[in-house]
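Exercise 7. Predict the joint structure of the components listed below.
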Amino acid sequence: MTETYVRTTSSPTLPAPVTHVGWVPWTRVHLFSSLGNGLLTLVGVFVLAMTLPGLLDWLFFSAVFSAESGVACVGEGKGACWAFVDAKFNQFVYGRYPGAEQWRVNLTIFLGTAGLVPLLVPNRFPKKWFVGFLLIPFPIIAFVLLPGGAFGLVPVETSDWGGLMVTLVVAVTGIAASLPLGVLLALGRGSQMPVIRTLSVLFIELWRGVPLITVLFMASVMLPLFLPEGMSFDKLLRALIGVALFSSAYMAEVVRGGLAAVPVGQYEAGKALGLTYWQSMRQIILPQALTTVIPGIVNNFIGLFKDTTLVLVIGIFDLLGIVQSNFTDPNWASPQTATTGYVFVAFVFWIFCFSMSRYSIYMERRLETDNDS
Amino acid sequence: MDKLPKAVIEIEHMHKWFGDFHVLKDISLTVREGERIVVVGPSGSGKSTLIRCINHLEEHNQGRIVVDGIELTEDLKRIDEVRREVGMVFQQFNLFPHMTVLENCTLAPMWVRKMPQKEAEEQARSYLERVRIPEQADKFPGQLSGGQQQRVAIARALCMNPKIMLFDEPTSALDPEMIKEVLDVMVDLADGGMTMICVTHEMGFARRVADRVMFMDEGEIIEVKTPDDFFSNPENERTKLFLSQILDD
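Solution:
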């Protein structure tokens, strides 16, 4: 029998029952919510128990942190040969860039970071100035500072560049060039003008249709054959252009997805207010389109960052290349040298890629809370 | 003899097709300065397409459209000139979600009219006042109710100081309790002498503000009359049928 019950006094707030708080129910909900999940938890614990101690032992407990040569790393039960990384660290970062001139690399990295960091912090600094700095003076400064040969700076051939520095140069150029180029190509692909549309489609499909290795080979081996006699330009520069064009084709397709996601009404509202095509793209469509595809854009950046290792095939020594080339150093010959080197490279790449990934997630969240109710 | 106000929109024998489908058939219409025209008709009758042709969001295929002395052709410059003078309010508001209300209202004056930011903001605030939401200026559109968003859309269009306002079913996407606040703003605008063409299903609004009510069906203008005449003695059978269907309740 039901009858409407009207409470006359307010109900007190009671503590939650014991079955809902504390570690026992937490474990039940998160680790053993069903038979399958319970088994998976046990398997997970088992795998960790089997691998973690060995891994920690190799990484830290049995590792050799400082030594004069690889001899210290030879022997039963020896772990990672960190001494190798320590001894070669300068080379891993700068390649064969002369020690006395390395301040130029440091200064470039410092200027780039100083320009970039304020942009990453929202609403703190006047963005215009930093974007302006990164777009115009910074590339010029880097272009003068790194190769030298002007303003009394000693020239340093790009064949002497190497290591992390080359990885960063290739990746940053690729990233900085691919976004604007990709946006232009995506707009071109959506253009009403048949010539522009066809050219954009051809460009995108051509570059997307070939592997990056092929592009790099073409840039390094084939291109000089097509250029007139006596005209040649730097191998690294050719690789940079190849990487930039290659990644801009990918970027174009990501941006195109973003453009398609902007409702038609937004385009119409822009037109109805009398904005020109470029004004409406710049102010209305692109800000929305690019925001939607941040995950895709960053995904491309990460892919590009890792693809820079391919420049090794044309004889440019990036971080991975320079580490690998040091494996043959007889002074550091040990069973652990190669593994340690690879783990080190993997870790450095992971740091960069993971930071980009986290930053993109942060941006997505921020933009979400900004605009939506 | 009374001198008629100047004609601001002249449409002569205009036709439009969507593929094979003849959406607008031989439309001729003259709108004079300060005139308020309400367009009614069943859905799919071409009402929206007609007013979208006036600011060239849709291209007409035959005939002539002259707006404020400028004939609409393929020339993008002329189209932009016309659009500057013609404000439009959409059914789905189409506010820019990544900008605040104030930025929505200052964007076009600053970029199209090259108005200094300060002046554009002052103007925007005064129009937001006029549509009765000055306090929402710094919010984002997503934080407003539908009725408030549509009023911002009206203010945004007004900030270009247009000579003509087009309304494309401005209350059709709103919850019933918000329709009135938008209509009040539109009535206020009409009383202020704005030249308006409204596509709407709000018959009360049509009675209240229209100089002429225009009935369209299957791409044709069937009947144009003063509101009193239109609602009390419709002549055409299709008009009568339509009115009997909508005035039922």
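Discussion. The domain at 82-97+156-372 of chain A is CATH 1.10.3720.10 (MetI-like fold).
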